[in-house]
């Protein structure tokens, strides 16, 4: 063996390696190409190539300076060849087509580990040539060991640098979309030959310009590997035999949970090297932490907004609003915040044959008859479970009840452990309301219930003040106040003063209790025969009064005659009434006392005429 020749070769290898190592990231392919060129300078062979281990393909890839070699030989040697002691030293099977050339395939070792093979082909190998090939293989093994260590160190430093830059970028952002964009961009720079997708849950809806897929984990899921990665938090592999594609699923993990899955689709590799999986996992974990921080920031921001909403709502509702103002305000708040389609305010009735009433301020659906089956069923459920109802798809849970809305929230208004009513929130889309929205509206209703109850109690108290306890008609004082308003605003009006005939005799005969019942009967008949704008009052004792805003004298007389007939026909025991009717219009110098006095005078005349009749009062200026 020529020692000088060997020293010359080694010096040549080292000069070549030193040149390459001056670069930041030397290419192993370029080094091996140069080595192949050098080998042909030292030994008489036609073709030279190096099969070097490729972790991505789990085999040995051919590197050569001669494109003819690549065409005439197999490109990949399977990793199983490592287990053979004498690998294909003269194997013709290395050629893709029949050849008369002799071949040598000599292992390149890093200690006991085979990292590749030196491939040579010639018409004939002399003993000297065989020895030189083995010697060169030993020399190349040493050079490759140095080069591999250098490249590994450079790659590790490069990866750490990328992780540092990406981590800094992540921590500077509280935007999930920016974090995900950075992940995809970084991976495309480092591994440009792969496709990337992000499986995200509904908590992180993807932007249109990101390769995102919705992460669905139910019995019908088609991609169970991604779901498994999400649920376990472990890296998952998938080999698709049909199209030779390898997929890697890496969870985006934070400290508190998993927030998505990164899918890497590789159509050109057999496996993913552990070193690269570790790097991608570190990158994914940093992204998961950034997503978690962004989520926590958004949650804290949302919590502050929710608390502000509750505080503002409570402050407004506790400012002595009337009930209609309370429901109108709540309607607007719920629509703006939750995007509700229909909102209903339901109040349970304690002293009524009807179980509940739909308050003003509710949307049209709750005011229609179609809502009754739904309300009856849901209110019964509220009473039974004494808790809120949250249904993602009502048609699935209660198919027997027709409801044009799928998403349903029903929150009871509880005061002193009693359900006073409920607030209903509906939307036509299934699963429209999130669980966070449900919890927020529960809190909102809880804080507003006291204001609702106070508004209802205040209006009930006001009603008691302005109404007669026996007949539920308005009080005389309230009628007087309302009449003063109409005299200043309207063009005309009619006033009816009514007296039950022979009431004292009736009381003496049947007693005061039945007398009170008779007054209630007459009051009920009056309430049933006046318009929505008209109002009736108990004038005192057995005297009642009716005011008809903007009514003519003819309207007043017609109403009075109807009441006379109805009372006589529908009271038990039968009684009659006498009615005095007065009238005013804008052209008169009018005041309430004058209207009352003239009606009272007409009533007196009706009594004088034999009772059970109607008398029209004289107008002002008309001779008596």
TrEMBL record:
Which SUPFAM superfamilies does this chain map to? GAF domain-like, Nucleotide cyclase
Indicate what this protein is called per its UniProt record: Diguanylate cyclase
Please list the residue ranges annotated as the GGDEF domain. Answer: 491-619
Q: Which SMART domains match?
A: GAF (SM00065), GGDEF (SM00267)
The record's section on Gene3D superfamilies has:
3.30.450.40, 3.30.70.270
Q: Which PROSITE patterns match?
A: GGDEF
Q: Which superkingdom, per the lineage?
A: Bacteria
């Amino acid at each position: 063996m020529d020692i000088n020749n060997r020293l010359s070769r080694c010096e040549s290898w080292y000069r070549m390696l030193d040149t390459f190592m001056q670069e930041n990231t030397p290419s192993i392919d370029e080094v091996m190409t140069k080595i192949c060129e050098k080998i042909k300078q030292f030994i008489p062979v036609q073709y030279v190539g190096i099969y070097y281990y490729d972790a991505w393909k789990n085999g040995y890839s051919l590197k050569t300076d001669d494109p003819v070699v690549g065409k005439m030989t197999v490109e990949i040697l399977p990793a199983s060849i490592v287990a053979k002691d004498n690998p294909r030293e003269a194997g013709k099977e290395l050629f893709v087509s029949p050849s008369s050339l002799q071949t040598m395939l000599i292992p390149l070792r890093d200690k006991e580990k085979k990292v590749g093979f030196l491939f040579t082909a010639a018409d004939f190998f002399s003993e000297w040539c065989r020895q030189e090939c083995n010697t060169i293989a030993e020399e190349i093994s040493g050079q490759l060991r140095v080069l591999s260590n250098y490249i590994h160190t450079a790659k590790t430093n490069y990866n750490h640098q990328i992780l540092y830059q990406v981590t800094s970028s992540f921590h500077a952002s509280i935007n999930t979309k920016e974090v995900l964009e950075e992940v995809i961009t970084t991976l495309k720079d480092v591994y440009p030959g792969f496709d990337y997708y992000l499986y995200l849950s509904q908590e992180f809806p993807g932007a249109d310009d990101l390769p995102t897929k919705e992460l669905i984990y139910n019995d019908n899921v088609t991609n169970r590997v991604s779901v498994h990665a999400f649920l376990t938090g472990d890296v998952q592999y998938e080999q698709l035999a049909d199209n030779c594609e390898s997929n890697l699923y890496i969870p985006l993990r934070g400290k508190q949970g998993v927030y998505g899955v990164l899918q890497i689709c590789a159509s050109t590799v057999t496996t993913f090297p552990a070193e690269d999986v570790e790097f991608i996992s570190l990158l994914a974990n940093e992204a998961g932490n950034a997503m978690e921080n962004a989520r926590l920031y958004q949650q804290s921001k949302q919590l502050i907004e929710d608390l502000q909403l509750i505080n503002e709502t409570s402050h407004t509702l506790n400012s002595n609003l009337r009930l209609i103002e309370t429901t109108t305000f709540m309607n607007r708040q719920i629509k703006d915040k939750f995007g509700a389609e229909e909102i209903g305010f339901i109040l349970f009735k304690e002293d009524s044959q009807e179980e509940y009433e739909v308050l003003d301020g509710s949307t049209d659906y709750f005011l229609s008859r179609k809502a009754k089956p739904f309300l009856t069923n849901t209110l019964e459920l509220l009473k039974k479970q004494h808790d809120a109802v949250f249904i993602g798809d009502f048609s699935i849970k209660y198919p027997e009840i027709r409801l044009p809305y799928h998403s349903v929230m029903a929150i009871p208004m509880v005061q002193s452990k009693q359900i006073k009513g409920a607030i209903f929130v509906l939307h036509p889309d299934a699963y429209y309301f999130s669980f966070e929205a449900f919890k927020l509206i529960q809190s909102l209703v809880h804080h507003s219930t006291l204001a609702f109850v106070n508004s209802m109690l205040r209006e009930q108290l006001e009603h008691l003040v302005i109404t007669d306890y026996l007949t539920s008609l308005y009080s005389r004082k309230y009628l007087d106040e309302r009449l003063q308003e109409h005299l200043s605003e309207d063009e005309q009006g009619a006033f009816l003063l009514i007296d039950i005939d022979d009431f004292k005799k009736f009381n003496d005969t049947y007693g005061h209790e039945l007398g009170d019942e008779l007054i209630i009967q007459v009051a009920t008949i009056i309430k049933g025969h006046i318009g929505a704008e008209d109002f009736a009052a108990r004038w005192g004792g057995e005297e009642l009064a009716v005011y008809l805003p903007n009514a003519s004298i003819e309207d007043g007389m017609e109403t009075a005659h109807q009441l006379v007939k109805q009372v006589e026909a529908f009271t038990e025991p039968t009684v009659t009434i006498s009615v005095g009717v007065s009238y005013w219009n804008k052209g008169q110098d009018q005041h309430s006392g004058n209207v009352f006095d003239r009606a009272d005078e007409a009533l007196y005349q009706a009594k004088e005429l034999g009772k059970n009749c109607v008398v029209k009062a004289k107008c002002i200026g008309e001779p008596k």
